[in-house]
Amino acid sequence: MSAARPLTTLRVLAVMTALPVLLTACGYGSESTDDGKKTAVAADAEKLSADEVKIGYFPNLTHATALVGVQEGLLQKELGGTTIKASTFNAGPSEIEALNAGSIDIGWIGPSPAINGYTKSNGKNLRIIGGSASGGVKLVVDPKKIKSLKDVKGKKIATPQLGNTQDVAFLNWITEQGWKVDAESGKGDVSVVRTDNKITPDAYRSGSVDGAWVPEPTASKLVAEGAKVLLDESDLWPDKKFVITNIIVSQKFLKEHPDVVEAVLRGSVKTNEWINANPDKAKASANTALAALSGKALPAEIIDPAWKSVTFLDDPLASTLDTEAEHAVKAGLLDEPDLKGIYDLTLLNKVLKAEGKGEVDDAGLGAR
Question: How far apart are alpha carbons 160 and 93 in whole angstroms?
Fold first, then answer.
């Protein structure tokens, strides 16, 4: 898929309204209990152009830049007296809704909800302003039922949510095997069962699903239940890199408070640098943050393999987002969208240059 080719209109996620009631009951669209939590700042710290910046992210290891950046105070350090108000989300659509409503200003989020949010608003509500993570997604299966990739046919495989990033990736992989599945119902040669990551281990344990295409740490939680990693999604991509987490901002906030956005990006870049220089400390920090959100830290047998499978980086890997959009089109969840303008990497490249790092590319999808 050419990164710069023109794309057209959206038909995506009218299907979201047809999601089973089960997903609502499982917490999709809801926020975690730390909603509105503010970070402490020094009384004499100088504020930027906003008193506070409202940020959102998931309690997932693929969002560890935000988890660690908040936990270690690396984001707050760059913001001075401008306070961080943090909220966490269980799914991309709810975070996009919060961005649209002004409940958050900046968010860490996967590519599919970023694409959907951008196209549904005709390019008016958000920009992708940076990258955060690559990888951390696996197909894990019951080894008693599935011994090879061809054995996936006829089985029940969980994904986190209809139209989410992992759902689109799995539907595309199914198509590449020559199998057919109705994207909206999940019925076909493979049964795609949309299940909240929080209950997927229970579903696997009960036999309701035979495996799952999921992000970390859910994949490693399943392995701890006896599942086997059948496929690492990274192996399907050139250089084994694909965007799993972006940083987005509301266009209104970007226009009114570019200094605050730049400070958050500087904090994100410095956080990724700290994570990569101190992987064990960073893993422990992320686990501490997850424990605060969930009430329980991840055991070593889960967090150790999960952490190793995620790469933290500042490059948004724009060409892979364009490819992921193509996958959604092929799956029938998306009419070819016009993604021109979804990226504005101006402030990120300013930060990277100041830090002595190489600039990153928007694959021809930069702001008009």
Answer: 12
Name the token pair of 147.
């011994």
Q: Three-class SS of residue 364?
A: coil
Please tell me the distance from the alpha carbon of residue 221 to that of residue 140, in angstroms, as a whole number.
10
Q: Nearest to residue 107, comparing CAs of 92, 118, 124?
A: 92
Cα separation, 212 vs 200, whole angstroms: 8
CA neighbor of 129 nearest in space, from 344, 320, 355, 340: 344
Give me the DSSP letters along 331-343: HTS-PPP--TT-B
DSSP state of 2: -
Helix (H, G, I), strand (E, B) or coil at 169: helix
Triad 268, 94, 104: Cα angle to 5°: 45
Q: In what order do the strands lie in the sheet with 211-215?
A: 191-194, 156-159, 211-215, 137-141, 228-232
H helices of 55-190, where? Answer: 64-71, 74-79, 92-101, 111-120, 165-176
pLDDT average, residue stretch 320-348: 93
Measured CA to CA in angstroms, residue 310 lies from 78, 306, 313 at distances of 25, 7, 10
Residue 109, class by beta-carbon neighbours within 10 Å (0-12 exposed, 13-18 middle, 19+ buried)? Answer: buried
Query: Considering the entire predicted model, what is its pTM?
Result: 0.86
Exposure class string for 148-177: b at 16+ Cβ within 10 A, else e: eeeebeebbbbbbbbbbbbbbbbbbbbbee
Give the number of C-alpha atoms closer than 13 A to the C-alpha of residue 325, restricted to the C-beta side: 30
Q: What is the pLDDT of residues 98-123, one digit of tens each?
A: 999 999 999 999 999 999 999 999 99
Half-sphere exposure of 248 (CA within 13 A, CB side): 32
If DSSP codes are grouped into helix, strand and coil, which group holds residue 109? Answer: strand
pLDDT in tens, 28-80: 233 444 455 566 666 567 899 999 999 999 998 999 999 999 999 999 999 99
From the list 243, 271, 268, the residue with the least C-alpha distance to 107 is 268
DSSP states of 56-78 as a string?
EE-SSGGGHHHHHHHHTTHHHHH
Q: How confident is the model at residue 90 (pLDDT cuts 50, 70, 90)?
A: confident
